[in-house]
Amino acid sequence: MMRQVIYRKYRPQTFAEVVGQEHVVSTLTNAIALGRVGHAYLFAGSRGTGKTTLARILAKTVNCANVSGISAGKSADTLSIRRSLGEGGPHKSVEPCNKCLSCQEFSKGVALDLVEIDAASNRGIDEIRELREGIRFAPAKAKYKAYIIDEAHQLTKEAFNALLKTLEEPPAHAIFVLATTEVERMPATILSRVQRFDFKKFTVPQIETRLSTLTKAEGVKIEAAALRTVAAAGEGSLRDAERTLEQVIAFSESPITLAHVESILGRVNIEKITGFVDLLSAHNLAGAVHNLHELSDAGINLHEFTKGLIQHLRRAMVLAASPQLKAALSTSLTDEEFAAVHAHANAFPINQLTRVIDRFIRAENELRRSPLPLLPLELAVVQLLLPGDQPRHQA
Ligand SMILES: Nc1ncnc2c1ncn2[C@@H]1O[C@H](COP(=O)(O)OP(=O)(O)OP(=O)(O)O)[C@@H](O)[C@H]1O
Ligand SMILES: [Mg+2]
Ligand SMILES: [Zn+2]
Questions:
Q1: 376 pocket-lining for ligand 1 (C-beta < 6 Å)
Q2: Domain 204-265, CATH among 3.30.1330.90, 1.10.3720.10, 1.10.8.60, 3.40.190.10
Q3: Which of 144, 214, 238, 317 has a CA 20 to 30 Å removed from the CA of 378?
Q4: Closest ligand to residue 107's CA
């Protein structure tokens, strides 16, 4: 039997297991506890942050045989409930039992009353038509029919119009969850009829904590720096981080080291990048050109190196331009990366940083076409560091 992929195996089955998104969890659980679940929700936010996961938990919970107090259709009141509950956290008592027949069917994704529509695959025309026809009928087995519409912004105009009519007069037994990564593409008419939740990207420490739970559950040993690099590679998406972890586990022996992770990610070690940037900031032309040759001789992928270099310089520039971003940057990078970004933000005047970045962006584009693989980088270094021959910066 095939091993279940991590991100499916560990999809949270209860509200308590959901990482972050506290505002969503507490509002939903409070609404369930008070018997005031809305008819239409919009889950907006970037990929892999738990939109589909929470939509499924919601659908399961309102249909659980062992959860009471639910009645759909009072979404207009949820605002006042939120106010009256103040900052009070989620209702810890509201969870699907995960044991009753209904819960099991929802968990397995075989519940007749759970309809998932992927608007990205065929833009939803037929599905929304079917939905409009089917929605008049009471749920087959469950208390509520739940419709989860993924990538809802991709629906066609016709599908949106059809959906709108349904949202205007939703039957008492229906609950809609529209999920989207591009909320600005949702029509205002739809937005005005849904209760909206914004899902936040995860910080590196949040992802790290989750991944560490998963590696322990899988009995996998992994170095702290390796885990942090996997977490950072997720760029705010837990799913992406979990996929990377999956790959890393599949391709390396235990204990998993930072070097394993870097080679699997095709990453160039931060030390190599910072070493090179140190030479640039010291105006050491001979050293920097020599360093390029060393990197090339060591078999470092020059594309990856240049990408990492630009990424690093960009962070330094952003930090120099806006020191308030310090906290956000420090939580999304490893300690070593952040220390280097911080140092380089101070090592160059900001106008020089922009010139260096511009020049390496050009070099990166030329790498693809250059018959001499090192030449674009050598040219960049020489032009940036040769005294009296600085490329004029165009405003
Ligand atoms: N808040 C979360 N708590 C725990 N695990 C999560 C969370 N968000 C995502 N995951 C993990 O990532 C996987 C994918 O999450 P999910 O499908 O809910 O993301 P999504 O927001 O719907 O993303 P997309 O916009 O790409 O559809 C889950 O199976 C789970 O393993
Ligand atoms: Mg999804
Ligand atoms: Zn149940």
A1: no
A2: 1.10.8.60
A3: 317
A4: 3
Q: Is the CB of 7 under 6 A from ligand 1?
A: yes
Distance of alpha carbon 255 from alpha carbon 257, whole angstroms: 6
Instruction: Return the best residue to mutate from 11, 121, 178, 230 for the ligand 1 pocket (most ligand atoms within 8 A of CB).
Output: 11
Give mean pLDDT, residues 350-366. 95
Give the model's pLDDT for residue 3. 57
Instruction: Give the full edge-to-edge strand order of the sheet including 114-118.
Output: 114-118, 145-150, 174-180, 40-45, 195-199
Closest atom of ligand 1 to 18 CA is 3
Ligand with an atom nearest the CA of residue 105: 3
- pLDDT greater at residue 103 or residue 73: 103
Q: Are 41 and 78 in contact, with CB atoms under 8 Å apart?
A: no
CATH number listed for the domain at residues 270-385:
1.20.272.10
Residue 123: band (very low, low, confident or very high) from pLDDT cuts 50, 70, 90: low
Cα 60 to averaged position of ligand 3 atoms, centre (Å): 7
| Domain assignments of the chain as residue spans, ordered by start | 6-199, 204-265, 270-385
Q: Where does the pLDDT of residue 92 fall: very low under 50, low under 70, confident under 90, or very high at 90 and above?
A: low
**pLDDT tier at 106 (50, 70, 90 boundaries)?**
very high
Class of domain 6-199 as given by CATH: alpha beta
What is the best residue among 238, 243, 244 to mutate for testing ligand 1's pocket, by most ligand atoms within 8 Å of CB?
A: 238
pLDDT of residue 139: 78
